[in-house]
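HUMAN: Ready with one sample?

ASSISTANT:
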Amino acid sequence: MKRNASPGPDGFNVEFYLATWSWIGDDVTNLVITFFDTGVMPAHINDTHIVLIPKKLVSLVPADYRPISLCNVVYKLIAKSLANRIKPHLPDYVHPSQQAFIEGRRISNNIIIAQEITHSFALSSWKHQSFMIKIDLAKAFDRLEWNFIVAALSRKGLHGHFINLIHACISSPTFSVVINGQPFARFRSGRGIRQGCPLSPYLFVLAINELSLVLQDAMSNSLLEGVILGPDCPPIHSLLFADDLLICGKASIQEAMTMKQILDSFCSASGQTPHWNKSGIIFSGHVDNNNMQAIKRVFPVQHIDDSFVHLGHPLILPAKNRTSAYNFVLDKFKSKLSTYKADKLSHAARLQLIQSVFSSIPVYYMSNILFSKKFIAKLTAIIRNFWWTGIREESTRSLCLKAWKDICSPKKEGGLGIRNLQAVNQSLILMSAWRIAQNPDDQLHKILRAKYFPDSSIWRPKPNTPKSAFWASILKIIHILKAHSFYLLTVGNVSIWSSPWCSS
């Protein structure tokens, strides 16, 4: 369990239990075993403090705060044990469209596929009439109905006693809201799962998975078409990451109404409510205006433009200078630096901030696009000026007493070990390319193969094909990966024409 975490209402943290386990270990173990045998949660074990974490620098209304639950360590032992029983089976239980909280699945796949869809929508050669809607679920964890969770678990064939144990965990807590360090007003809830409970992420994806299954059934019954990005490409009906939903389909009023009925039925059963003001819709290029307006009357959402983001990434990238869509990363750098009085910090403190905070900010974005050298230079200039003078504006020149490439070299070579952002960017794109090459059964591999190398392999893609930002990034560095990898000839699955291979 996580160390140095805030304790629950009983005031005992993990370190306390570790230090006193020789005295209290038997009692705690017997309490946990008794719960597993009887399914009855002991009194006050499931008491919970709710702490409000500000989402913004200036938080004025309740919606500006994120409620986090602080649970007792003994309860976390129970919930973690149940979560560990569920976790290994999630890849089999949950549809491939869901990428959150499941081992082996990545948030980057969701983002890349979404950007591939919008890229195809913008092509003049794309003749299909399609649309994609992004749906944000309001207070998704807090609204989830317990009966819906139990029904979803039952449909997976889990044992009744195991389901009863989970139901006891999610239905028995007593809450107190912590205001100015003091808990107030004990109360019970009638639905919802807690952010802070080890079970919650897995229960949530199992519940939301019911939507994916219904959409899949609708496609099997020809009620929905989804989006097909190329020959032999599996149709895409949805992309999910926890409560962030992207649903795709044919741009027809019939399909839109079917999709809306499915969504309404799911929300009615699960307790979810779409946040339409934070949702959006995008159409492919050949959808006429009348059809667009008819579908937008079904879904009361805004039209997605260049500023719309999905999981922190822009959904639509410009055809030229694609890096410009990520200019907000520069703003993140500057706003983060503005919180520190850098000119008052020692160089050792500045180095610690650079290594632990600033060098890691762009990593999340670098896995999906190879930034231009000019953009990397701007990021590096901000870090360099922060190191030398504490000034955060990249346009401000500072006196540099040593070459920056020497400062970025490893400590054993006399440098400070600061990350070279361009090398980090290339290595992350190389990792993505390697995962694609190594996982031919993965959804992302199938989509990229259908678009860019239908009759070949990632090593020899089809020439003269319009490229998305991600695929263009792959092509710029694939020669590095190809030079350092090869296939061993064994069972004959390697193409001697398109795959790098070696007979020894």
